Amino acid sequence: MPDGLFHAKKGLPESIVKMPERRIKPRVSYHARCECERDKYDLIILPDVICFSGSDVFEVEIQGGKLVKFCLRLRYDDNYDCVYVIAVNYTSAGLELVLKTVWKNHKKDEHRSVDLSRYATWPA
């Protein structure tokens, strides 16, 4: 896999795009816990397990040919979605997933202001 920061609007690895539903229980960082309490819209209550598929992933970071970060946008309630930023740490004991940060977005917020020049284009 090529290294870089990739956005769904500029292409993601096929293994991510076609990923079936996954259930993860990442360790929650101190920063993420704080953000849950001070989100600009309201308190965020984290689920016990995060369920997602490839279609929920909008950003990945690859370093040394390995996935090191991925970002998800998932339904929170009728008005908001939640964005979860998850780090992938490779340890001698295996993979460790860490929820680095989290925030709410209005459902109608399509992030049109995102700067796509920050992202590499995934090779076709």
Account of the protein in words:
- With 124 residues, the chain is mainly beta.
- It has one domain.
- The protein is 10% helix and 44% strand.
- It has helices spanning 14-17, 30-38; strands at residues 4-7, 22-24, 27-28, 50-52, 57-63, 66-75, 80-91, 94-106.
- The strands form 2 sheets. It has a 6-stranded mixed beta sheet with strand order 1-5-6-7-8-3.
- The mean pLDDT is 94.
Question: What key phrases describe this protein's structure?
Answer:
124 residues; 6-stranded mixed beta sheet; two-stranded antiparallel sheet; mainly beta
How do the helices and strands follow one another from N- to C-terminus?
EHEEHEEEEE
Strand order of the largest sheet: 1-5-6-7-8-3
Classification by helices and strands: mainly beta
Provide the β-strand percentage band. Answer: 35-45%
How many helices? The count is 2
| Sheet having the most strands | 6 strands, mixed
Shape: globular
Percent of residues in helical segments? 10-25%
Total number of beta strands: 8
**Number of folding domains?**
1
Kindly, what is the distance between the CA atoms of the first and last residues, rounded to a whole number of angstroms? Answer: 12 Å
Round the Cα radius of gyration to an integer and report it: 15 Å
What is the average per-residue confidence, as pLDDT, rounded to a whole number?
94
- Poorly predicted sequence stretches spanning 5 or more consecutive residues: none
